[in-house]
Every structure is written in C-alpha cells, then in structure tokens.
C-alpha cells in the first residue's frame, strides 16, 4: 500500500518551491499581496464545487485553499513574522475561547455537561468577539468588518451588527415597503437625469435588497449566485433554441429574444 503524503510533505514542497536557488521562478517572485487574488479565486472555486455537490472536486479545491494557507505561512516564516505552527496555535486557542459551551475550563478534552441552544451560542459568540474587539481597541458596533469583503456579504454583515443593538426592521414587509420607496426614488433620479443621484439611489436599492434577504434568513450572496446561475442556464437554452432554428442569436429582434426567454422558462417547468 502506497503511503499518502502528509502536511509535513506539503510544507516541504512549499519550501522547495520558494528555494531561491532551485525553486520555481513564479513562486519565488510572489509576496503576500500578489497571491491574494489567487486565494480569492480558490475560495470561489471551492464554493462553486460545493454548490454543484461535486464532492471529489470539493476535496481538490480544499487542497488548493489549504495550499494558500501554506504559502502565506511560508512567507511569514521567511520574514520572521509567523509560522504554520503559530497560525494553528492561534486558531485552536481562539476556537476554544469562543466555545466555552463545549470546552470546559478551556481544555480541549474538557466536557461541559449543560446543554445550550443555538441562540445561546450566537449570543455568547458575539459577546466574546465584542470583548476581543475591545482588547484590540476596536471600538464601535461596526468595528473590524473588513472593507475588503465583497460588497454583498459586507452589507449583510454591517446590517447584522446594527441589528444586534436594535437598529433593524421588525418584519420583511417593512423592508419591502422600504424597497419600494427606494425604487421610487431611483425612478425619480433617472427621470431627472441626475447621474450622481442615480448611483446613490441604486446603491440604496441594492442595500435594502440585502436587508430583505437577511430578514427572511437568506444569505444575499448565495441568493444572487443562484439567480445568476438560473439566468445563465436559461440564456444558454435560448441560444440552443436559436441554433436549432439556424438563427443567428445576435440578429434576433428583442421580441424574438423575449419569446425564446419565455420558452426557456417554460421548458424548466415541463
């Protein structure tokens, strides 16, 4: 039986890739900033594989994400900033600290007898994170919400933080009313031809739509990804229908395209 490679082997591969004399020219050239785009790309590829329930691919993408951690850790080691061991130590310590309902006396093997609800866990988690923010001198409810987050999840996170101190809508209906109000303001800005106002009002529409997703306990990013996938699927079906008729899709009139779109929608319900 062939033995499997280990985490230590992966670390050694990374060291070899970064070896100034015998390593890979591309890997040697990289720094913290330059590999951030790759990290984001790998995370999105992992998310896509999970959405498609392609689990062999999920395992492969998890490896790619892990490699990003190894890469950053190697860079940190070279600069004397941190190592993979210190990264793991910090993570384990944080997880134990944030789960006192699981780890009695902050001991990995310590078992807590009393049971807690999901809501209790959420409340405890936020209280602990708030204490951590204070220790880091990060004052304010919205402190430490990363600016670099994609716009949808950042909007949702900001809204969740505000909701925890009571600044929130009471029901989805209230958010729908607000959404209609924002759409009306956007229409007015478009009619007036006020470009800056249009951008501002469109942002309000999007932000309120995210609030609606949060109110009905849905993740805005996942909802939009699903909608995008649906659009892509139907658009491809339109192209296929046009090809069967030997029509050049780009030459079709708007009415013909709309007819194909309706047909594509109906084909999904058959």
Description:
Helices cover 68% and strands 0% of the residues. With 270 residues, the protein is mainly alpha-helical. Among the domains are: 7-82, MazG-like (Helix Hairpins); 155-216, MazG-like (Helix Hairpins, Orthogonal Bundle); 221-267. α7 packs across α9 (195-215), α8 runs antiparallel to α9 and α10 crosses α11. The longest helix is centred in the C-terminal third of the chain and has 25 residues, at 220-244. The mean pLDDT is 92.
List keywords for this structure.
270 residues, mainly alpha, Helix Hairpins, 0% strand, extended
Short recap of the structure:
This protein has 270 residues and is mainly alpha-helical. The protein has helices spanning 7-17, 25-29, 36-51, 55-78, 84-98, 118-135, 151-164, 172-192, 195-215, 220-244, 254-267.
Layout of helices and strands:
Blueprint: H1 7-17, H2 25-29, H3 36-51, H4 55-78, H5 84-98, H6 118-135, H7 151-164, H8 172-192, H9 195-215, H10 220-244, H11 254-267
Helix pairs in contact: 1-4, 3-4, 7-9, 8-9, 10-11
CATH superfamily of the domain at 7-82: MazG-like
Question: Rg, please?
Answer: 25 Å
CATH architecture of the domain at 7-82: Orthogonal Bundle
Q: Could you give the count of β-strands?
A: 0
The unreliable regions are none
Order of helices and strands: HHHHHHHHHHH
Estimated helix fraction: 55-70%
CATH topology of the domain at 7-82: Helix Hairpins
Number of helices: 11
Strand content: under 5%
CATH class of the domain at 7-82: Mainly Alpha
């Amino acid at each position: 039986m062939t033995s499997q490679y280990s985490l230590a082997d992966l670390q050694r591969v990374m060291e070899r890739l970064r070896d100034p004399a015998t390593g890979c020219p591309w890997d040697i050239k990289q720094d913290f900033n330059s590999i951030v785009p790759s990290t984001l790309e790998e995370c999105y590829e992992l998310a896509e594989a999970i959405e498609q329930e392609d689990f062999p691919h999920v395992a492969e993408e998890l490896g790619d994400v892990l490699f990003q951690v190894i890469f950053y850790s190697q860079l940190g080691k070279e600069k004397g900033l941190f190592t993979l061991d210190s990264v793991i130590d910090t993570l384990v310590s944080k997880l134990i600290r944030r789960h006192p309902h699981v780890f009695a006396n902050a001991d990995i093997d310590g078992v807590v007898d009393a049971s807690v609800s999901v809501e209790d866990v959420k409340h405890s988690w936020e209280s602990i994170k708030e204490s951590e923010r204070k220790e880091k001198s990060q004052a304010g409810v919205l402190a430490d919400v990363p600016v670099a987050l994609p716009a949808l999840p950042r909007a949702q996170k900001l809204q969740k933080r505000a909701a925890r101190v009571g600044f929130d809508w009471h029901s989805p209906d209230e958010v729908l009313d607000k959404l209609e109000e924002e759409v009306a303001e956007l229409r007015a800005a478009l009619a007036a031809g006020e470009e800056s106002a249009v951008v501002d009002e469109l942002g309000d529409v999007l932000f309120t739509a995210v609030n609606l997703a949060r109110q009905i306990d849905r993740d805005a990013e996942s909802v939009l990804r699903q909608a995008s996938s649906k659009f892509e699927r139907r658009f491809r079906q339109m192209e296929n229908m046009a090809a069967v008729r030997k029509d050049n899709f780009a030459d079709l009139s708007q009415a013909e395209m709309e007819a194909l779109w309706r047909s594509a929608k109906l084909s999904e319900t058959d």
